[in-house]
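User: Structure please.
Assistant: Input sequence and predicted structure:
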Amino acid sequence: MQWKINYYYNTNNISPIKKWLDSLDNEPKAEIFKIFQMLSKYGIDLGLPFVRPIENKIYEVRAKDKSGIYRVLYFAHTDKTFVLLHGFMKKTQKTPRKEIEIALKRMKEVKDG
């Protein structure tokens, strides 16, 4: 059985991660969605160079093209479901703390229902 991939939605029923993905050019978007397909197929067994753990059960999808480096932060929820929490274009070597904090806050919202 494949893993499902869901988007985070805030209390206004808006998905910032979906909006961000929709705003990307075709090339990085295709690269990211290719990794989403692998994630759906292999689930938690998928590892580097495509995904890696960040902290507190938050993982990152790692995509790159000629225009830059892209990250999508997510976590494994219930019943073989991943929830995409936050996406950004990476400009530094290390994942910025503020990006991780956004994902942690959203993960808490999802878990608290």
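The helical segments are 16-23, 26-42, 97-112.
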